Amino acid sequence: MSEYIPSPRQWVREQVELYESSGGKEGLTLRDTGLPVIIVTNRGRKTGAVRKTPLMRVTDGKNYILVASQGGAPKHPVWYYNLKADPNVEIRDKENVYKMRVRQVTNPDERARLWKIAVEAYPPYQDYQNKTNRIIPVFIAEPIE
Ligand code: F42
Question: What is the pLDDT of residue 145?
């Protein structure tokens, strides 16, 4: 087992702690939006440490759509690079934990379809895209059979 290194951001760290320590019964939404969140567990590409990243819950059938928006910041979040380096993740969705593999969606038609679903689930994603020059990366996470 590798070491777990919590997020340096307090609100993110606290959400992960509550979500995980309650076994997926508490801390399930983004602040007071009422909108659901998942926890992605992945590996740091340099440290090899376990990292946990809360993201909005966006689904496409059994798959999850992961949007590297970081509030429309000019740079990709660090977890983007971690997922590119090691695509094997665990996703906790409330009380369920799934082993999944992620891939960045680069096909324009596929990305457009998934982006629409993501914006329907969490409309601020579109505001974030409008305010940044980068194209916000979209991953699809698929169950490992
Ligand atoms: N972020 C999103 O991008 N999209 C979402 O839909 C989203 C939803 C969401 C909901 C609830 C919530 O609590 C947070 C939410 N966030 C969402 C924020 C998200 O959880 C992340 O905090 C945010 O995207 C920033 O990700 P980040 O990976 O850039 O995190 C920073 C603050 C961070 O942890 N930095 C670490 C540090 O120490 O500075 C880096 C840790 C790391 O991964 N290091 C790597 C390693 O090897 O361990 C090496 C990295 C390298 O390449 O240098």
Answer: 74
Q: 143 CA distance to ligand 1 centroid (A)?
A: 22
CATH of the domain at 32: 2.30.110.10
Per-state percent for the chain, helix, strand, coil, to nearest 5: 30, 30, 40
Give yes or no for residue 109 having a pLDDT over 80.
Answer: yes
**Which residue puts its alpha carbon closest to atom 33 of ligand 1?**
7
Ligand 1 and 54: CB distance under 6 A: yes
Q: 52-107: per-residue pLDDT in tens?
A: 999 999 999 999 999 999 999 999 999 999 999 999 999 999 999 999 999 999 99
Q: Is 15 in the pocket of ligand 1 (CB under 6 A)?
A: yes
Report yes or no on 89 lying in a domain: yes
CB-neighbour burial class of residue 31 (10 A; exposed 0-12, middle 13-18, buried 19+): exposed
Tell me whether residue 122 is in a domain: yes
Looking at the 3D structure of the chain, how many domains does it have? 1
Which of 10, 11, 12, when mutated, tests ligand 1's pocket best, judged by the most ligand atoms within 8 Å of its CB? 12
